[in-house]
Design brief:
mainly alpha; globular; 4 helices; 72 residues; single chain
């Protein structure tokens, strides 16, 4: 069995999270950027997902600052 790269797993987590709270996004979620997905995720999950994306270099420090609840 192959393991997906971490950023792919995080993206899938964000898609599921966004869909679970916004059923009307079902047709659009596949074409969303990481930032749009984060904005549509549940507020309590945004920081954790943003940090995961930052660690695998999928978002910048400036983008992380928008979603982060942890000090730099």
């Amino acid at each position: 069995m192959t393991t997906k790269p971490e950023h792919m797993t995080v993206c899938q987590d964000m898609e599921v999270n966004a869909l679970s709270y916004n059923k009307y996004l079902r047709e659009k979620v596949g074409g969303m950027t990481n930032i749009k997905l984060l904005r549509n995720c549940h507020p309590t999950d945004r920081s954790k997902l943003a940090w995961k994306l930052f660690r695998v270099e999928q978002i910048t420090r400036e983008e992380l600052a928008e979603f982060s609840t942890k000090p730099d």
